[in-house]
Structure formats: structure tokens, C-alpha cells
Specification:
- The structure is a single chain.
- This protein folds into two domains: 183 residues, MFS general substrate transporter like domains (Growth Hormone, Chain: A, Up-down Bundle), CATH 1.20.1250; 182 residues, Growth Hormone, Chain: A (Up-down Bundle).
- Helices cover 83% and strands 0% of the residues.
- The protein has 15 helices and no strands.
- Helix 7 packs antiparallel against helix 13.
- The longest helix has 40 residues.
- The two termini are 40 Å apart.
- It comes from Neoroseomonas lacus.
- Its main location: membrane.
- Pfam families: MFS_1.
- It is found in: Cell membrane.
Length: 386
């Protein structure tokens, strides 16, 4: 098997297992929260609050998972994540009440730290070094359909077997599909390289500053993405769109994200990742300006621009740290850089929801301001890189 064929197979495997893991975790509450809350006699907000705590645990454990990938390669870590996902899902399906359900989501938080995008990006960095950029883009292209696949799959299993059966179904898919794919078809990485100097900085202090700046960029972007992901239809209605028009515009989010990733994979593949990051970050403030100036008739344009930026940012999350700091120690560094983003994503739906309830569409000035601050941080990175 040629190197190119082997790499294409690795990307296809990781894209498939990422789709499975996102569907079995991050996208699960959207479908199952209502029946779970009804059975346990709690509100949907309580179920999503537990999910948010699991995301916080993922942020805490991310650096350790990345360090394990740096040392052992991603194959074993990703395979273990499939087992841990399955354990958490089985616990969830068997939970007699809220305490065990909370414990199940703690297990899921551990699995997400080991098995979602950052772990896959670190796996590719270990395999292909600085040449991993197109491979990272490739798996985000495939896994960009995780919600498209995951939500209907969860809904089908819940309708046929109930919410507990849906948990068992996802657990079975983790063991029967995800585990063998990750364990048998992802190559073993070579021995880890020794630490190398960072290209963008002359010592540890400049490197730390760059890491802090990049963490800020990803945290602000993560906040905006999670906030709008939870409140997009309501925001568009507060801008004057009808309920039907808001839903119709919202359906453009996924295609816009995937379309931007295709653009990154083709026409922008040779552009400096820092330039791609700036384009991605400025997209949301531009979208907000379009909506504020044009009102409800520009709802679809707003979603397309915001979605395109968000789709590119998912890739930037993996490629920019690789370009700035290199592949050595990528997993651990990636876990540190993305921890604030995971935390901001956990809290964004709740806090932004309060703001939307108070000021409606004017709440978008917050996310637009965060986007401009992130753009400024990216230009500071350029100053150090020169």
C-alpha cells in the first residue's frame, strides 16, 4: 500500500470514528434530554447542566490525554476511548436515577477527552508531523456530518427502543465499529521525537505568551459557536424573522461549515494557517454587521457567513498550533491550549441565553466584540512570528 493510500485510509478511518464518537456523546443530549428528564422528574436544563459539567471534566483531562498520545501514539488512546465511551453509555442506559446518571456522564467526560477532535488531531500530528494539515482538514470534512448522522440515528433508536436502548445502541457501535477501526487500521507511530526549538519564539516565555494568545482566540471562538448553536433560531426571530424563516436559515449552518472546509481543503490548502485563522475569526463579526444593517431579510446570509467561519475555525484549532509550535509535544500542548475553549463552550449556552432573554439580537454585539478581540490576538501572533 502506497504512503498516499495509507494516509487516505487513516483519514477515512478517523473521520468515521470521529463521526461515531461525536454522535454518541456531544450530540446525544439534543435528542435524549427530553425523555430522560421526563423519566427522572427533572427539567431539561438539569440534563444539559450535567452535560456541561462533563465538558468541564473534558477540559481538565485534555492535557493528560494529549500527553499520552505524544508518548504512545493515538491508536491505543483512541481505542481505549471507544471502550470508555461504551462503559459510560451502558451506565447511562442502566442508571436508576440521577446520581448514577451523573457518574455516567463523568465517564463520558473522560472518553471525550481521549476520543474527540483534539485527540484525532494529535494522532495525525504524531503520524505526519507538519504535513498533517490536509489530513486534519480531511477528518473535519467527514466528521462535519456528525450531527447530520448522529441526531437521526439517536432519534430512530429512541423511537424504537427508548432512550435507554439508544444508549445501548451507541455503546454497541463503539465496540463493534469504532474500536476495531481505531485499533486495527490506524498506523503505529514512530518513537516520539525529542523536544525541538519552537519556530515562532526564542524561548519559553514567548512560547507561553503565544500559547495564551491562541488559547484566548479558541476560547472566544468556542463561546460564540456554542452560544449560537444553542440559540440561533431564537436570535433570528428576535431580529424580525418569522419562525419558519429562522428555521430555514438555521438549516444552512451545516452546509456552510462543510463548504468552508472544502474551500480550506482545496483553494486555501497552501495558505499560511495564520491567514486562514484570521479569515475565520473575522467572519462572525462581519456576519453580525450584515444582520444588524440588513435585519431579517439578511438572516440566511448571516448564517452562511457565520457558519463558514465556524467551519474553518474547527480546522484552525488543529492546524494553527501545529504550524506555530511544531509536532513535538503537540498532544499535551493542544490539550492546554484548548482547555479554555472547552470550558467556554460548556457555559456559553446558559450565559448567552440569559443575555438573549434580556436584550434579544443585541446580544450579538458581545460575540462580535469577542471576535474582533480574537482577531487582534492573531495579529499579535504574527508580530512574534516575524
Amino acid at each position: 500500500m502506497s504512503i498516499a493510500t495509507n494516509r487516505a485510509l487513516t483519514v477515512a478511518v478517523l473521520g468515521t470514528t470521529q463521526t461515531l464518537s461525536w454522535g454518541a456523546s456531544y450530540y446525544l443530549p439534543a435528542i435524549l434530554a427530553t425523555p430522560i428528564a421526563a423519566e427522572f422528574g427533572v427539567s431539561r436544563a438539569t440534563i444539559f447542566g450535567i452535560f456541561s459539567l462533563a465538558l468541564l471534566l473534558t477540559a481538565v483531562l485534555g492535557p493528560a490525554a494529549g500527553r499520552a498520545i505524544d508518548r504512545r501514539g493515538g491508536r491505543d488512546v483512541l481505542a481505549v476511548s471507544n471502550v470508555v465511551f461504551a462503559i459510560g453509555l451502558v451506565m447511562m442506559g442502566l442508571a436508576p436515577g440521577l446520581p448514577v446518571f451523573c457518574l455516567a456522564w463523568a465517564v463520558m467526560g473522560m472518553a471525550m477527552a481521549m476520543g474527540l477532535y483534539d485527540a484525532a488531531f494529535a494522532t495525525l500530528a504524531g503520524l505526519y508531523g507538519k504535513d498533517a494539515r490536509n489530513s486534519i482538514t480531511g477528518i473535519t470534512l467527514i466528521a462535519g456530518f456528525a450531527s447530520t448522522v448522529g441526531w437521526p440515528t439517536s432519534a430512530f433508536m429512541e423511537a424504537e427502543w427508548g432512550w435507554r436502548g439508544a444508549c445501548f445502541g451507541w455503546a454497541a457501535l463503539q465496540i463493534l465499529l469504532g474500536l476495531p477501526l481505531n485499533r486495527l487500521l490506524i498506523p503505529r507511530v514512530p518513537p516520539p521525537a525529542k523536544a525541538a526549538p519552537v519556530a515562532t519564539a526564542s524561548g519559553p516565555e514567548p512560547q507561553l505568551r503565544d500559547m495564551v494568545l491562541l488559547a484566548f482566540v479558541l476560547a472566544t471562538a468556542g463561546f460564540s459557536a456554542a452560544a449560537l448553536g444553542a440559540h440561533l433560531p431564537g436570535l433570528l426571530q428576535s431580529a424580525g424573522a418569522t419562525a419558519a424563516a429562522a428555521v430555514a436559515a438555521g438549516t444552512l449552518l451545516g452546509p456552510a461549515q462543510v463548504g468552508a472546509r472544502i474551500l480550506e481543503f482545496s483553494f486555501l490548502r497552501n495558505i499560511n494557517p495564520l491567514v486562514s485563522a484570521r479569515i475565520a475569526v473575522v467572519a462572525h463579526p462581519l456576519a453580525v454587521a450584515v444582520l444588524m444593517l440588513g435585519g431579517a431579510p439578511m438572516a440566511a446570509v448571516f448564517v452562511l457567513i457565520h457558519g463558514a467561519g465556524n467551519g474553518m475555525l474547527t480546522i484552525t484549532r488543529g492546524t494553527l498550533p501545529l504550524a506555530l509550535f511544531g509536532p513535538v509535544g503537540y498532544g499535551h500542548r493542544q490539550g492546554l491550549i484548548t482547555a479554555p475553549a472547552r470550558a467556554s463552550q460548556a457555559f456559553a449556552p446558559y450565559f448567552f441565553g440569559l443575555l438573549v432573554d434580556a436584550v434579544g439580537v443585541q446580544s450579538l454585539w458581545l460575540t462580535a466584540g469577542l471576535g474582533m478581540a480574537a482577531l487582534g490576538a492573531l495579529f499579535l501572533l504574527r508580530m512574534r512570528e516575524a
